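I am still getting used to backbone structure tokens and would like to learn alongside you. To get us started, please write out a protein record for me. Once you have written the record down, we can walk along the chain together.
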Amino acid sequence: MELSSIEHIDPAQLADFKADVFITTLGFETRATTVSRLIEEDSCKKIALKGAKKLKEFSYQKNENYFKDHDFEIFTVNSAIPDVDAILAPIEGEQINVMIDCTSMSPNWYYEFFRWFYDKQDEDRKARIRIIYTMANYVPQPGYGKVKEISDFLKTDIKPANVKKVALILGLGQEKKVSESIYKIIEPDLLYLFYADPPVEKRFVEKVFVNNHKLINEAPIRNLIAYPIRNGKSIYQSLIDIILPLRNEYSIVLIPQGPKIFSVVAMLVHMGYPDIRISYPVFKKHPIADRLPSDTPVILDILFEGEE
């Protein structure tokens, strides 16, 4: 199937989606069950993915009890990615509707669901995926320490014919010196900076500018891109508008720091343009914390369609 459309959905329309299956994650944050509680009355099949080595601190036990009490099937993911085929292949019909709560889900997990549909090139049915993300209350973050390296998230066999200049598209977070360290490691020839505005809270944008002011000065003002956190379609279009004119001349590195919805959209961009390198910083130490839900969720509908 091919990616056909991306649509922003108002949170008031959450109940309008009739899912065949709802997939979430058994995580340790309090907000991990927020979406599940919003759709308690839905009669669809419900699955909670559980990492074999996931942290079991904070609200983990409370969340596990909630899922068990509400008839979720808890699937343990023993490898790097879940067995998507076992979850989705049994669903029949001309259109499959899947609801995914990515709040506590790792990028390689939700990417694997996208890839499963994208690889079904010979199917003529449709698949609508509703991605839901519960944002967290604002909590000031210190720097995460030294960035050890930049790790490629998705491997590609596509090799450039000749050495190209490097364009870095970097999502800005609020952590001090992290984005600056990434810039120094990659040493790009061209820099684009993305940040969420409006975010959930104004204080987030203020902290982004205060903690990244040196790096922001390295980019032309036209390359400083604000994106609306609630509109994944707009984020996708902004990335495509930047990427398309650069692909012939530049090797593009996309590092989707910031709110998770930016990472979700980056994965969709990579599916259409696999030469785009998705990478993430690796830290010496990455502190964990319980985060509480904030406001209404972000919702994105993604449509995959087979060839006619």
About this structure: The longest helix spans residues 232-246.
